């Protein structure tokens, strides 16, 4: 390894090691993968109707099954693509707690939570949601530097208490909680950073994971103008000079294969099921190590699909078959070099 690469790798390791002692446990909601059951009540029809034009916060309630907990909340449509009516009839939600939940609550420590919802009433959309949830769980297996997710069966009621539907959904861990859990903090940057400022080990994991699930809808170093970095990713900072990227939002991946998902035009491919590696060449050594680690975790990854409630056999078989082609690509160091890393970004 050349002198500059050695310094880069050493700097990355020191940046991570310098903050490990400050790591904290997860909040109660994300200490377990066991599904929860809850009820959300509010003007959900109005929220869905106005999602694209003006996502106005609305008052509602969130109650755990059996009314074990009942919280006043503010509900807001969120997202970009999934807020559009031609994409989703029911948008993802932001759930805010005006009053901090008690220390004994499952929601202790939560202020604002992202809730991924079912998008459309057709039963197939339940399977797409469960596949996206599984993607979060896969990255949890790969690294603790990942957003945790908590699956829920949700009864939706209108503001008068009339039942609307029961569907799966999942909460996503807040960025600040993810950062504290790993002894890091949210990075405050502009819309773009140089790729040389990315921590190599995590950047390689990020890129290889996105290749694994067939996702092209992301950037670990740039975001839309005026919205900060990054596109479907966030950056964490520690005591060192490098930023640690963390991915989220996987509905445009080939693994999920949502009906509305299309690949970015500049890739000139026809399907989101087609994999394209977007990792940086300077991280190739770290990518080889990441590939070996993921290769060893193949049994756990495949077993995970059998652990997701509500996922039908056809969906499970299709997901395992789709990932099998990825595992062929990373079967050996030589195949990683030949099939994946030769297409790295300079």
Brief account:
This protein has helices at about 5-15, 45-50, 125-140, 175-180, 200-215, 285-295, 300-305, 315-330, 335-340; strands spanning about 35-40, 60-65, 70-75, 95, 110-115, 150-155, 165-170, 185, 235, 245.
List the SSEs and their pairings:
Elements: H1 3-17, E1 36-41, H2 44-49, E2 58-64, E3 70-77, E4 93-96, E5 112-116, H3 123-142, E6 149-157, E7 163-172, H4 175-181, E8 185-186, H5 200-213, E9 233-237, E10 244-247, H6 284-296, H7 298-304, H8 313-329, H9 333-339
Parallel strand pairs: 1-6
Antiparallel strand pairs: 1-2, 2-3, 3-4, 4-5, 5-7, 6-7, 8-9, 9-10
Helix pairs in contact: 5-6
Structural key phrases:
disordered N terminus; 7-stranded mixed barrel; 31% helix; 346 residues; 2 domains; alpha+beta; 10 strands; single chain
What does the model show?
The protein is α+β, with helices and mostly antiparallel strands and about 350 residues long. It folds into two domains: about 5-20 and about 185-345, no CATH class; about 35-175, no CATH class. Helices cover about 30% and strands about 15% of the residues. The chain is built from nine helices and ten strands. The chain has helices at about 5-15, 45-50, 125-140, 175-180, 200-215, 285-295, 300-305, 315-330, 335-340, and strands spanning about 35-40, 60-65, 70-75, 95, 110-115, 150-155, 165-170, 185, 235, 245. The strands form two sheets. It has a seven-stranded mixed beta barrel with strand order 1-2-3-4-5-7-6. Helix 5 (about 200-215) packs across helix 6 (about 285-295). The longest helix is centred in the middle third of the chain and has 20 residues, at about 125-140. The protein is globular, with a radius of gyration of 20 Å. The chain starts with a helix and ends in a 7-residue tail after the last helix.
């Amino acid at each position: 390894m050349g002198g500059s690469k050695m310094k880069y790798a050493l700097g990355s390791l020191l940046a991570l090691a310098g903050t490990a002692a400050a790591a904290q446990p997860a909040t109660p909601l994300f200490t377990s993968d066991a599904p929860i059951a809850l009820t959300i009540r509010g003007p959900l029809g109005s929220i869905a109707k106005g999602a694209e034009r003006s996502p106005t916060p609305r008052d509602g309630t969130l109650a755990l099954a059996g009314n074990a907990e009942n919280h006043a909340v503010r509900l807001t449509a969120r997202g970009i693509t999934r807020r559009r009516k031609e994409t989703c009839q029911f948008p993802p939600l932001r759930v805010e707690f005006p009053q901090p939940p008690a220390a004994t609550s499952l929601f202790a420590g939560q202020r604002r939570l992202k809730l991924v919802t079912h998008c459309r009433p057709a039963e197939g959309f339940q399977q797409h949601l469960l596949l996206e949830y599984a993607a979060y769980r896969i990255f949890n297996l790969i690294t603790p530097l990942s957003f945790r997710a908590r699956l829920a069966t949700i009864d939706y009621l209108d503001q008068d208490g009339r039942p609307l539907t029961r569907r799966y959904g999942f909460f996503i861990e807040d960025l600040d909680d993810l950062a504290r859990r790993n002894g890091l903090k949210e990075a405050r940057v502009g819309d773009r950073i140089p790729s040389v400022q990315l921590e190599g080990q995590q950047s390689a994991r990020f890129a290889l994971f996105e290749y694994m699930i067939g996702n092209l809808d992301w950037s670990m170093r740039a975001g839309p103008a005026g919205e900060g970095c990054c596109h479907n990713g966030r950056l964490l900072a520690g005591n060192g000079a490098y930023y640690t990227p963390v991915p989220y939002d996987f509905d445009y991946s080939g693994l999920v294969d949502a009906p509305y998902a299309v690949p970015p035009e500049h890739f000139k491919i026809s399907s989101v099921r087609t994999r394209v590696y977007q990792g940086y060449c300077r991280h190739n050594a770290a990518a080889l190590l990441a590939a070996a680690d993921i290769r060893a975790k193949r049994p756990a990854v495949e077993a995970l699909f059998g652990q997701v409630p509500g996922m039908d056999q056809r969906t499970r078989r299709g997901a395992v078959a789709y990932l099998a082609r990825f595992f062929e690509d990373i079967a050996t160091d030589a195949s990683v070099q030949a099939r994946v890393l030769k297409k790295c970004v300079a």
